[in-house]
Amino acid sequence: MSAPSGNVGVVTGGSRGLGRVLVERLLSDGWRVATFSRKANDFTERTAEKYTKDFYWEPADLRDAQSLRGFTRAVESIFGRVDLLVNNGGVLHQELFLTTAGQRMQDVVATNLLAPMQLAQLCARLMMRTGGGSIVNVSSINAVRGYRGVAPYSAAKAGLDGLTRSLARELGPLNIRVNTVTPGFFDSEMTAEVTSVNREKIRNRTPLGRLGTAEEIADAVTFLGSSQAGFITGQTLVVDGGITC
C-alpha cells in the first residue's frame, strides 16, 4: 500500500496485534504513522527510534474524549494532515448479560463505538482540508451473528457498521471514503484465551478449516484504505473464512 509522499495514517491501538501489523506495514510502504495506546511498550519505543520523523506515539485512552482530542491536535501539529484513519482499537468483555454491571456496559460502548465516532469526526475535519481521505472501521462478526456473553460488544460493533454507512453518505461529497472490515476469528490477544476445545469447534464451523491471521485482516484494511478501492465506500468486507455463510 505505497503512499504518495507525505501521506499520514492514524491507527488506533497500534502497539500490538492487528494495530501493530498495520503500523509496520504502513511505515514500510512510506507512510507517516501516528498511533496511541494506554502504555508504551518495546514495539512503540523501538519504532520511534527507527522512524524518528515518520512515527508518532503518545498515551491515550479510548474512553477519554479529551485525550483523543489532544492526540488529534498533536498529529495535526506534527504532520499537518490525516489521509487514513483505521479505527482498530477496542476491547472485548465476555460475561453473561444479566450479570454485566452498567458501568462495564458503558465502558464497552465508549471504547468500541463512541471513540471511533469521535475520532472519525476529528480526522474527517482534517481530511476535508487536504482534499479527502479514507476511514476504515474494524468491526467483528459479533455484529453479524449472535454469540452468548458478548451482548454489549456486539451492540457496539453493530453500531459501528451503521456509522460507516451513514458517514459514507455524508462524507462522500468531501472525497472521504468510509468502509468497514469485519474480521472473523483470527489469532490475536482476544482469541488467545479461547480453549483448545472451542478453537476446534470454530475450525469445524469455518469452511476454510482454520482461524485467520492478523496479516490477512491487515490485507483487507490496507486494500480499503488504498487507491485500489477508490470507488468503494459504505461497504462492509467480511474476512472470516466463511463462518458467517
What's the SSE blueprint?
Elements: E1 8-12, H1 17-28, E2 32-37, H2 42-50, E3 55-59, H3 65-79, E4 84-87, H4 102-127, E5 133-138, H5 151-171, E6 176-183, H6 196-205, H7 214-225, E7 236-239
Parallel strand pairs: 1-2, 1-4, 2-3, 4-5, 5-6, 6-7
Helix pairs in contact: 1-7, 3-4, 4-5
**What is the CA-atom radius of gyration, in angstroms?**
17 Å
Distance between the termini: 29 Å
Number of domains: 1
Name of the CATH superfamily: NAD(P)-binding Rossmann-like Domain
Q: Describe the largest sheet.
A: 7 strands, parallel
Uncertain runs with pLDDT below 50, 5 residues or more?
Answer: none
What is the N-to-C succession of helices and strands? Answer: EHEHEHEHEHEHHE
Helix- and strand-based class? alpha/beta
**Average of pLDDT:** 93
Give the count of helical stretches: 7
Give a count of the beta strands, DSSP E runs of length 2 or more.
Answer: 7
Known CATH architecture: 3-Layer(aba) Sandwich
The outline comes out as: globular
Helix content: 40-55%
The CATH topology is given as: Rossmann fold
* Strand residue content: 15-25%
CATH class category name: Alpha Beta
Q: Report strand order across the widest sheet.
A: 3-2-1-4-5-6-7
